[in-house]
Design brief:
The chain contains five helices and five strands, in the order E-H-E-H-E-H-E-H-E-H. The protein has about 130 residues and is α/β, with parallel strands linked by helices. The longest helix has 15 residues. The relative contact order is 0.17.
Length: about 130
């Protein structure tokens, strides 16, 4: 991946601090602007007060998981008419996980560990890059 030539802000929703740091370091060197939330409830609060170009959402978190959070974000978007692409992140690699993500309103899904090349391909598919 090459350094970005445009501003792309990401909300990273991940409860594991080590994963947060790894993804943050991976993405910030390409010019992404990253804000972090530790669970789905924090993500809802941040989405209500700030604009993001993309959300990276872990599926399994305390307080509110990624699937429930994505569903609530999509409900709010029905009122606003906005759409923020959401990519689900999971340590599981079952085909059913991707279907579950899409059924809850996510645009795509990625297995962990975070793969920058796969991430770039998904961004291109979603017309973010």
């Amino acid at each position: 991946m090459e350094k970005l030539d445009k501003h792309i802000s990401i909300l990273l929703v991940e409860d594991n601090v080590l994963n947060q740091k790894l993804i943050f370091l991976n993405l910030s060197k390409y010019g992404f602007v990253i804000d972090a939330a530790n669970n789905g409830k924090e993500a809802l609060d941040k989405v209500s007060s700030q604009n993001y170009d993309l959300i990276l959402m872990d599926l399994m978190m305390p307080v509110m998981d990624g699937l429930e959070s994505a569903k609530k974000i999509r409900e709010k978007e029905k009122e606003s008419g906005n759409h923020i692409p959401i990519i689900g992140l999971t340590a599981n690699t079952f085909d059913a996980d991707r279907e579950k993500c899409l059924a809850h309103g996510m645009d795509e899904y990625m297995p962990k560990p975070f793969d920058i090349n796969l991430f770039e391909n998904i961004l291109r598919e979603l017309n973010i890059l």
